């Protein structure tokens, strides 16, 4: 077992949640871990002496995933990497499943579309109009009978049709279809959404509850693309089962909660997300000291469509209203309208003839103790800045990259070996060197 550091972390876990598409188990995890290890070695020679081991993870409901364990270095404790794999829940996507969602996006009023998606929206409409005009023009010039003959000849080429169909299914339905179905709570999608969330919550609970020499002092959740939407749902749902947990009332220091509340009550609110993250970590440590069992210190989103959640979510209630109702946790957390706090008090305890209470963070105050770092390429319109929707406590990390405006440039390349800028931001956000 590694030497315990001043933060009480002698073993830490990193949970990777993959994005949309035909993902295979372990592909995302292995590529991510290999890139992180190589980057750590470039920064610290002691990392070159570490070893990576693969073992059955013991937490997944399937037997296709494994745990990759990276031995400790001089400055980093033992680090275990897990993958929460969910793609097998999204099978047989059809146009019918996502048609309503696509039409809603397409027919949204221009002023409701986020700035980063504006050009893409205009491009799609121009292509549709061009296609309609082209079809009408060709029909007028060639004639309907001639077009029917051409179509009949085309349909007579089954091999070509199969290739085109498979291509469309692979590139569109298996990718955009996942997003459309997860974002849309229609009856056809409820089962898949629920299974993913149930499996994910069970997964994270098991990692929280590991015992003996594999007990974790800290958990980091890293999520890419659509996986970040799933991760956000898992964290906000799981937090409601942990926010009221405590066990030690003899010595209580919860000053960080008061400091956060002071920051939130200022007219200009949070002005420096880096300073706020220091405060969040202090709050996390203090909550652990009073017996709160929440171990997730960091949430890292990469190329996340959450930045456009108000546009992509199929919901009749505005996103701001849902935040105010505490359905969607923000960073920093929303204050109570009356008390102007993010906590309420436990029942009173008599400790050494002194009456004490524990401050309990409310059910949407997840990001009082969990730092949120959001990383995205400037060319990747799927990802983008998160502060617009979720608050100034999110640390947005934009990485300059050029690409055509209608192409999400770099969306699948964030931890490629040659992308030093994005890899550096990811390693910095992971904060693996806790010693």
Number of strands: 12
Q: How far apart, in Å, are the first and last alpha carbons?
A: 14 Å
- Helix share, percent: 40-55%
Tell me what portion of residues adopts beta-strand conformation: 5-15%
Q: What's the number of helices? A: 14
Multimeric state: single chain
Q: What sort of overall outline do the alpha carbons produce when their principal axes are compared?
A: globular
CATH domain class name of the largest domain: Alpha Beta
Provide the structure class.
alpha/beta
Domain count: the total is 2
- The low-pLDDT segments are 1-6, 163-169
What is the level-2 CATH architecture name of the largest domain?
3-Layer(aba) Sandwich
Rg over CA atoms: 24 Å
pLDDT averaged over residues: 87
Q: What name does the CATH topology of the largest domain carry?
A: Rossmann fold
Features:
alpha/beta, two-stranded antiparallel ribbon, 2 domains, disordered N terminus, eight-stranded mixed sheet, Rossmann fold, 435 residues
